[in-house]
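Example record

The entry below shows one chain as it appears in the dataset: sequence first, then structure tokens.
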Amino acid sequence: MQTRKQKIEQLNKAIDVLWHGVKDTKDGDYPRIIFLYKEMLKLDPKNSDAWENMIWLMWSLSINKKDTAWMIEAEKFVKMYLSIMPNGYRAYEYNGMFYRSMVKDERLAIRYYESAIRWKDAPESTHHSLVSLCNKIGDKRLAIGYCKLTLARFPKDAWAISKLKELTKN
């Protein structure tokens, strides 16, 4: 009987072979890889990389196959990821990225990024994404506020310094 660790190692090897071990990933490999990630998450539900890779594959299939069922599945799992990993910026940031890039719902993405930056371990790039989104939807006041918040946490952030100057012109 395999140990939990051995099963995880075996799943990682299978995923690596399907995704990276061949010259081109073949049609039909993504659903297999998604299945393997689901199995891995049963053994290791705190594996952020597995969540994020699986969700990306689902989104990719929804685009490539023009099949909304994969996007519905991806959205279900992105919410599940956050419910399992609510303590830290990463799952909030990933949800923000999901709604910003994959679903194209900037306002919802902003809510997730706002939650992400509340965590002390949120990097500068998470703050930059939030400022950029606020600016993109035309909320200059909010963009300036988050830029100032970024500088309060990261005083030497060259991007935030430059962005604040740009936003406060006129």
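Notes for this example: The radius of gyration is 19 Å. The mean pLDDT is 93.
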